[in-house]
Specification:
heterodimer, A: about 350 residues, alpha+beta, 5-stranded antiparallel β-sheet, flat, B: about 150 residues, mainly beta, Immunoglobulin-like, 6-stranded mixed β-sheet, 3-stranded antiparallel β-sheet, 10 strands, about 5% helix
Chain lengths: ~350, ~150
């Protein structure tokens, strides 16, 4: 705790060098002021309107409902902020954590015993609910290429409509023998960007057509530290591949606040090369497929997930086609700690106290 | 004079996942009527580049008059089963720490904290990859069957 009051404090995320109580009082003052301003102003506005007084807000189209919405948001923000701050002032972080853990336990009562058995490890049900053809489970990718295609397509359409309107304006101005020079000058950069979006979209669509989906199946899931598993990889499409690699990667991921920005960082802490192939021809009739076996390193960390931090394991497939840029597809997996001998004492949450 | 809070963890403070432990805490150098509440917890928290997260595995709050004993300074023994995860981890940008923590709240408004760290599991420290040559020499067991 700080020994004396400071005017200037340093802050990184939720950590600060200031006195916590002073900060809490400041928050209480701010939210209480917001709440009081909202309530008093709302009562005043409503009172004037229904008392029949002639005010600027009583005229049609004067924005009466907009004022109501703004004052209502003042009351909601102030009330919620005040309630949360007052609750946090009287409760230690440990007590809040215990209450949230109880709430989480109640919420996940019907979701099976997996998360309760391994706290802090993500639920694996989203990863192993799709059966595979060759092996037990088909893994989903961490992000879909379709989203990039949709975003690119939407931007391209909107931008090209804008350029078309601009071209029409320039065309009519020439027909009227009064060239619109600002529009003509603006057309040059707009048309350049338009050409670039069309080129990028076309290239992306051709790559999607040529590369095809990457399919990864796994013999068991969730995995465990020190255990082996089998992997089935299939790459379809129409391309000549210079090299294709399969890695098992473990990364630490964090998010943190820097000023008003939320930033994230990642650090690879384990890299296991499972396989590498060179000079492969993939065709629609003959997709590349292979069955592999790998082990989760016995000295590795298990998967972990908390609100701002994570340890994530992924199978990473990297493909370098001839004449095309390298692309990468990631398939997250959940890794649990090495199995321990069953405790003869019962469930892990049991405890007793004396004293 | 500040109150004394003592925490005693068994053994060498390194435990296996799901292991049962018995730990104790005691408060001294304070009058019983000066104590407003005592909170004891077993918890993990994160350190490193990201925002710190915390989750309690065990928590109890004792307030004079509402517990089975009137004097909260007496030695308290708690037996509990540790969870299977998350294990203690010394990573590059993320660290997971376990500790037993006791917080003493005084009627004067002051609070005092004492904690003892321990390790859950035996995961070696994480290392940053890639390092020169590391990716080539890392263990890679691969059986390939081109079909």
């Amino acid at each position: 705790m700080a020994k004396r009051f400071r005017f200037w404090t340093r802050k990184q995320g939720t950590r600060t060098t200031g006195v916590r109580e002073v900060g809490a009082l400041g928050e209480v003052f701010f939210f209480a002021t917001l709440l009081i301003i909202g309530l008093v102003s709302l009562l005043f506005v409503l009172g004037m309107r229904y008392a029949g007084a002639a005010t600027p807000l009583s005229q049609p189209g004067s924005g009466f409902w907009l004022v109501l919405i703004v004052l209502g948001s003042f009351i909601l923000l102030g009330g919620r902020g005040l309630a949360v701050t007052l609750l946090q002032m009287g409760t230690s972080p440990e007590r809040r954590s215990a209450l949230s853990r109880q709430a989480e336990w109640l919420r996940t009562l019907g979701e099976g015993a997996g998360r309760a058995e391994y706290p802090g490890i993500p639920d694996s049900s989203n990863f192993d609910n799709s059966p595979g053809i060759r092996l037990a489970y088909r893994l989903p990718t961490s992000h879909s290429d379709a989203w990039l295609l949709i975003v690119t397509l939407t931007f391209s359409v909107v931008w090209n409509v804008l350029v078309a309107v601009l071209v029409r304006e320039v065309w009519y101005s020439f027909q009227a023998h009064r060239p619109n020079w600002p529009a003509i000058l603006a057309l040059v950069p707009f048309a350049t960007i338009s050409g670039w979006t069309l080129w990028f979209l076309g290239r992306h669509m051709i790559m999607q057509w040529a590369i095809g989906p990457t399919q990864v199946e796994i013999s068991e899931h969730p995995l465990a530290v020190g255990k082996t598993c089998r992997i089935f990889l299939a790459q379809s499409g129409r391309l000549d591949v210079e090299h294709l690699t399969v890695h098992l990667v473990c990364e630490e991921r964090t998010t943190y606040q820097q000023g008003t920005d939320i930033r994230s960082d990642r650090q690879c802490v384990r890299l296991v090369r499972i396989a590498e192939y060179r000079q492969i021809a993939v065709s629609a009739a003959d997709p590349f497929s292979v069955e592999l076996e790998t082990a989760i390193p016995s000295q590795g960390m298990h998967s972990f997930q908390s609100p701002h931090n994570a340890v994530e394991w992924e199978l990473v497939v990297r493909v370098k086609p001839k004449r095309w840029p390298l692309f990468e597809r990631r398939f997250p997996v959940i890794v649990r700690p090495a199995p321990v001998e069953e405790s003869p004492h019962g469930t892990p949450d049991q405890y007793s106290t004396t004293g | 004079m500040e109150p004394l809070i003592s925490i005693r963890l068994p053994g060498k403070r390194q435990y296996r996942p799901a292991e049962r432990i018995e730990w104790q805490y005691q408060i001294d150098a304070v009058a019983p009527h000066d104590i407003q509440a005592v909170e004891a917890s077993i918890l993990w928290y994160t350190e490193g580049k990201g925002e710190s997260d915390m989750l309690v595995h065990f928590f109890e709050r004792r307030v004079p008059g509402t517990t089975e004993v009137a004097d909260l300074r007496a030695m308290r023994t708690i037996t509990l089963d540790l969870p299977r995860s998350p294990l203690t981890y010394d990573g590059v940008i993320l660290k997971i720490r376990w500790c037993a923590r006791v917080k003493l709240f005084m009627r004067s408004g002051k609070s005092f904290l004492e904690e003892q760290a321990f390790r859950l599991g035996n995961v070696p420290p994480g290392r940053a990859y890639p390092e020169p040559g590391q990716a080539l020499t890392d263990l890679a067991t691969a059986v390939t069957l081109r079909e």
